[in-house]
Write a structure and sequence with these properties.
heterodimer, A: 306 residues, mainly beta, four-stranded antiparallel beta sheet, 28 strands, B: two-stranded antiparallel sheet, 43% helix, 4% strand, DUF1604 (chain B), G-patch domain-containing protein (chain B), RNA binding (chain B)
Amino acid sequence: MAPQIRHRLDYHRGSVNSAIFDASGSYIFTGGQDKTIRLVNSTTGDLIQTYLGHGWGVQGIAVSKDSNSLASCGGTDRAVYLWDVSQAQLTRKLTGHSQHVDCVAISDNGSIIVSGSFDKTVRVWDTRSSNSPQALLQSLDESKDGISSLVLTQTEIIASSIDGHVRTYDIRTGRVLIESFGGQPVVCVRIVAGGKCLLVSSMDGSIQLVDRADGKALAAFSGHICQSYRIQCDANDSLVASGSEDGLVYVWDVLRGDESGSAKYRLGGHSGIVNTVEFHPSAKSDNSKGQAMLSAASDGSVIIWE
Amino acid sequence: MSKRSYSNSSFEVGDGDRVDFIHVGTEFPRLTKRQERQQVQRLKYNQQHKLKDDDTWQPSISFVSSQNKRAEKMSQKPEDFMDAQDIAENQRDTELMSINGNFSSISTRIEAQKLVEESGNKRYKGIVGTMAEWMSAEFRAIQVATTESTGDRIMHAMGWKLGHGIGPLVPTRSQLSSNFEKAHESDSKKAKVPPRPVSLVNFAPNQNHSHGIGYGINIGSLEGAENSGIGSHSSGFLPTLGALFKSKSKKAENLDSVDLVKKEKTKKQREKSARSKYLLSFDASDDEGDIYGDGASGNARQNSVLSSSKQPATSKSSLERLVEEDSSKNSVRNAFKMVPLSTSDARLCYDGKRPLSGFELAYPADTEACHYDSLDVPADFSWIRHVRKSRWDAVPASGSQSQLQLSEAKLITAKDRAKLGIIEDPSFKQRTQSALDPDIAKAALEGFMPFSDDPTKQQRYKNFLQAAAFVTNNSPVNHVLDTRETQEFAQMAHVFRPNATMLSRFTSSTQKAAEALPEENVVAATNTSNKKTVQRTVLEWAPSLLLCKRMEVKPPLSATKQTHDSNFERQRAPRQRAADFIQWNANSNSGNSEIPFVLADDPAEVKMDISKQTPVKKPDMSLFKTIFGDSDN
């Protein structure tokens, strides 16, 4: 059975660039081109809080595991904002990037923020530092092009770049693993299967499922359109979902992706480019929520699927 | 006004009676009418201004009475035609110009100072009337001062006068001749006169004398020699060595002394002296029969010399006597033989000119006579190094320079021998000549094959590569780079061997077309097998220690304390470090943290094996100072 629209949220004016679940999945954080971040109850669909402070459109959002800290990045702001979720106040503004910041990630305890920018750098910030200049822990400038997506695990920093590489910075071993995907710009990277696999979406309209152990491509998914915009994707244990420039949400079966090559579902509901797709955090463990996901489009609509 | 005493002067009264007046003292000066008028004006002025003393009023310094001007001769001066601006400019010019005492002589300094003082007084007082005279006087003073030098001024001050010599006073000749000085010692100083001036010494070198090594004595330049019969010959002889250093007669000495200051001889004398040049040869060759060693010309000269029929009857010198003796005896002098030069043999310089007087061209040295053959090394001689068989003999040489002697080759190190290409071992020669590495040859076999226009040459190239790729040390060398073609093949192998870096970035255009998919099958291909090849590269990365701490991960060996900002750690406040330490301490007490707190500055210390549970390092003093304060403050 195909996923159904549970809630359609139209709180934003303009494109919704980023939409995420919190750790529990009860709340949704969305950031749009209207320079606002909105906290919505995923169950009821009610708007809880609006975070104002960005001077430009919000490009990325990340929330800590305890949902106390919210990190967001703006476009031309060239800064990373740290919010107090409960107080809805801006606590820190981390500046240092020379170009617009496109993606951000936060650690589970909220002490580390990683931001990726168009200036080809990935910067690691310390939220416990007293002032902004001392907050920058390290700057990773191995990339040859802008950073499109970031994933922060307990021991690794995974960054995908428009130069067609996915770089995995392992803090434990002190090594960086550079994986090249045919030279096509990589627009999204996700950790799936408990950290064993890597889901990589390229701008040639393909999504690769790569085994992180040996680098073998386990599956490939295509059919959607991803040629000009940064389309995000996500996967759980059984499904792989991705947005598309045609306004549809493509869902593939993980096990049958490379055989048929066609998507399992093509979900419509948006009238614009589907920018981001994210599965419910409980979908990995709870089968009843295996198809619950979130999608946001450029028409300002946010759809909660179940 | 003469002082006339009015005493006994009579004053006639109208009735004719004479009254005598007696005056005591000098008579009062008779005032003129003008003076009387001034006196009256003074009294009136004093009365008007209530001045008590008549002497307080003085006529103004700048006051110029027109009465005086009437009496003075009126003459036109430049100031009469100058307005105030011109006068001011002249005054400024005069102020700029002043007489400096350093440039004035002693005698005229006083005059110049007087002039300056007078001019200054006049200037300050504003009198511009005699400015022309003052200017001319100043110029005169300067002119007089610049004609004498400082030395002259000093000399003049000491009493020297032009024409006197420099030195103490000397007594006159008459005083010296007589005993006048002794008798009148007290007056001797008074009678002394200045010394005579010393004549100038001419330090110009005399170019006429020809003494010294390498100089030939020019007989013709000596008038005395001519008179004595030596230089009068058309082909004069050089005197013997003994005659050269023989004590000369007094006349000759006088002549020599005259020659010292003699001027350059005439052209005729110069030519004569050139013709009379002789070369003294010390070759003790006997029995040549020709003492001059120069054939017919020499004989002719000899005859002209020996016959001396045209020579005047003069006293013979020792040289002539010697020559006559030799000619009579027909023997060569033991010491030397004379090689006269004919006129045609007069050697000229490279530019065609005759050598200067006193010079003569030298003959080229006999190199063969001075060459000594090198001694041969004895056969039984053994070199120390060769006996020890050191590294100099370890590596056999190879090359083509076989002309080197064995002994010399052993003195060269093996490295230098290889450079020189000295051949000693044939096997080594083959090894070094086959300079193509087998690995390169194997790689070249897989690369591009040149010489496509010449298949036979290409085949030879392949054979060369195959032979070089599979050559071993033990196998005989099939090819030797002794031909030009093989050298070319070796160069081509180096050039056209494939590059692994290029292969990874570019694809050959000559690949089969089957590999390229047609466009209509692109979609199907992506659907069926669009798995991409993931290329992995692993690089070293150094995470910062603080990042490791925040992530609660053990820092790797490559972890460094240096962050992206080199000033980060320097700017990091000590308080922040103290806060980190406190937090770490709290975590360590709770047992959550397994990481030792490191505050070391040296990353090398961080690299030590933490897994061995090394003891916690003691924090540095800056941390304590931050917490407990600095005792210095």
